[in-house]
């Protein structure tokens, strides 16, 4: 397995070599005993669409997130804590469609969803339709640990956040100009073909033409052998009427049990209908399929046939890692116990 330099100095040459090592069909040569895997969204992300500066920024942020998760695991912390630490970094970065930098809905608001699941206990927490919670993944964890429920939405979830001392921010905190532009483009497109039913738009960067979903996710295996998964998102540009995607739906965009942990990114409606995350774990459990095969079957076969664009990151209790995606690119990476960051974006 090739290693990449640390934060901020990933060369394009090194990254091209690492893309090959991280291709869909190639799991790590030596599986880690414990570690963390992350994604920052899948979609039309091609090398010619990303400037070297932007690519370096993505790689640096993904590496920082891996390092945050790794630091928790290295000191014997839980996979749940590692997932939270890794996702907070990505939620706080305007580069990704989660927390700051989330996409806008049809009404020009940022509306956030997140979920976390503990593979050891099958406990889970999920939140949806948030407008003021700075780090939705933290609120999902509070729902899991400090409430009798699995999912809370909207005003009720934010009232619970207040009770729990979770940081709230003004709605403007989440706004970035790029995301606003993406919404304007989506609205114009819709206006140009008024007969058509309104469609969800993957987040599209008007400067680069890059189209992607941009959700963030993490799965981890800790030193005690426990798995966890988490996902956080702003959903899809131009979504409306309280639309909730797959990310906070346990079994669709997020799932973990004793065998495997999965976080997805892509066109959420398909991930919900095909219960993607749970299906991958069920294939392992019922058919004794290896992780990579289970994940590939779902992402590269079932979803492709259905027309559902996206990808997943997954880890099993043996430390195997899978990161298949059926779109041109997916921001992704993993770090095992040796602390070497492996970050990739494109398909080849
Ligand atoms: N899956 C997310 C959703 O549909 C979007 C994404 O992955 O970026 O809400």
Chemical compounds bound to the protein = aspartic acid
Q: For the record, give the distance between the C-alpha atoms at the N and C termini, rounded to a whole number.
A: 16 Å
Q: Give the C-alpha Rg.
A: 18 Å
Give the helix level as a range of percent: 25-40%
Can you summarize the main beta sheet?
10 strands, mixed
Strand segment tally = 14
Principal-axis shape equals: globular
| Percentage of β-strand residues | 15-25%
Describe this structure in words.
The structure is a single chain. By secondary structure, the protein is an alpha+beta fold. It is built from nine helices and 14 strands. The chain has a single domain, classed as (Glycosyl)asparaginase (Glutamine Phosphoribosylpyrophosphate, subunit 1, domain 1), CATH 3.60.20.30. Helix 3 (79-92) packs antiparallel against helix 4 and helix 8 (276-287) crosses helix 9 (291-306). The structure holds aspartic acid. Residues 41, 97, 213-215, 233, 235-236, 245-247, 253, 265-266, 268 line the site of aspartic acid.
